[in-house]
Amino acid sequence: MRKDKRVLSGMQPSGKLHIGNLVGALQNWVKLQDEYDCYYFVADWHALTSQYADPSPIRENVNDLIINMLASGVDPEKATLFLQSRLPEHAELHLLLSMITPLGWLERVPSYKEKQFEIKDKDLNTYGFLGYPLLQSADILMYKAHYVPVGIDQMPHLEITREICRRFNGFYGEVFPEPEGLLTKFPKVPGVDGRKMSKSYDNCVYISDTPEEVEAKIKTMMTDPQRVRRTDKGDPELSPVFQLHKIFSSREEQAEVAEGCTTAGIGCIDCKKVLIKNLLNVLRPISERRSELLQKPEYINDVISFGTEKAKKTADATMSDVRKAVML
């Protein structure tokens, strides 16, 4: 265990969570909380960077995100769970960091132009969107995090925080540790249409889906395009269903469905039945815990308040160091 080292990670309350969020983030958070001093937060200010015109769903999404965290196994006794917007210290540090951050650093963040190209129905020509990596840096540096769990493709996003950290320390002295990426192999989770699972593609299996909804979605999911007829032999690597088998099915089951696919020994319906069974086995205890938590709104409020109070003590200590460093 390395409880002397701190991990920081957050998630935007941008809507219902899907199984990609579960295997890509939440399950990893559950493992890390036993090894590190973990701070996990709901990034509701970040949600405003694209939802500023209609922020009405954010509050409901915040509660749903907290419930999903807890239902998935994040333990408020082991990790600090908090709400970003309840800590104005984040905004103050964001402001101070903005004074030293070259504009070109923000403009070259890979997702800046990518998201502007992808998202056509919202005006993202705002400072909030341009400056979100800076707010992200404030989130990380506020808690003097040693590690940030990321996939290899997300390292450029963390690198700007490392650059800002070095620049700040260079001007004002060693205030912040330079955060490192805690590299995690995030599996690629395909949606029911074969593309990457994403709410924007409307191709998700959600954590909150009923068993009937999960079954219906998997039954209609794309398979190997070579298998037009039941007797056609296929290649499991071409099937999005098999990619989910790699995540949710045992090695023995993966071997069985792979052989059945390549020899036409089983049909796609049979393959999907195995996946449905295993996926429901993973989601069932989460669903049961969700149902319990939905009946305990006071407990959810207590979790947020307790975690936010703990996070504020850390944030206050950091900002005391920062103000002293910049002579404010």
Describe this structure in words.
This protein is mainly α. It has two domains: 2-189 and 297-325, HUPs (Rossmann fold), CATH 3.40.50; 209-290, Tyrosyl-Transfer RNA Synthetase. The chain is built from 14 helices and five strands. Strands 1-2-3 form a three-stranded parallel beta sheet. A two-stranded parallel sheet has the order 4-5. The radius of gyration is 22 Å and the shape is elongated.
Features of the shown structure:
Tyrosyl-Transfer RNA Synthetase, 2 domains, mainly alpha, single chain, 9% strand, 14 helices, Rossmann fold, 328 residues, elongated, two-stranded parallel sheet, 3-stranded parallel β-sheet
Shape: elongated
CATH fold group of the largest domain: Rossmann fold
Range of strand content: 5-15%
- The CATH architecture of the largest domain is 3-Layer(aba) Sandwich
Distance between the amino and carboxyl termini? 38 Å
Helix count equals 14
- Helix proportion of residues, in percent? 55-70%
Could you say which structural class the secondary elements and strand pairing correspond to?
mainly alpha
The strand count comes to: 5
Low-confidence stretches: none
In order across it, which strands form the biggest sheet? 1-2-3
- Give the CATH class of the largest domain: Alpha Beta
Q: What is the overall pLDDT average?
A: 92
CATH homology group of the largest domain: HUPs
* CA radius of gyration: 22 Å
Q: Strand-and-helix sequence, N→C?
A: EHEHHEHHHHHEHEHHHHH
Total number of domains: 2
The largest β sheet comes out as: 3 strands, parallel
